[in-house]
Prior knowledge:
With about 120 residues, the chain is mainly alpha-helical. It has one domain. The chain is about 70% helix and about 10% strand. The protein contains 5 helices and 2 strands. A two-stranded antiparallel sheet has the order 1-2. Helix 2 (about 10-40) crosses helix 5 and helix 4 (about 80-90) crosses helix 5 (about 95-120).
Amino acid sequence: xxxxxxxxxxxxxxxxxxxGALTLIGLAVVVDIMIAVFIGRGAMAAESAGCYLTxxxxxxxxxxxxxxxxxxxxxxxxxxxxxxxVIFAPYSFKAALLAVLVWFPVAVFIVASRKAAQHA
Length: 120
């Protein structure tokens, strides 16, 4: 079954899609660094809009004051979930699931790169 799936898979498309996901995660790392350097940590005033670094026990990012703040917060936290998910996976199903979701594009990109090189 797995061999049939591998033969049917379009590895160049898989490589492009996983590369796009890795680009989004890499961009999140750059934005995280910019937030840490230019904005800093600590909660913002209730009426202000933007994102900031939180450091209560674990480092993370929180956004507030605009309609997509939850989505942007989740995107900014992808790199931290890649680290924390692996660390806390033995203790939490949610952490294990997050680790798998964040590291899945890396695995797909590596496999698709090798398979696309074999077929080229």
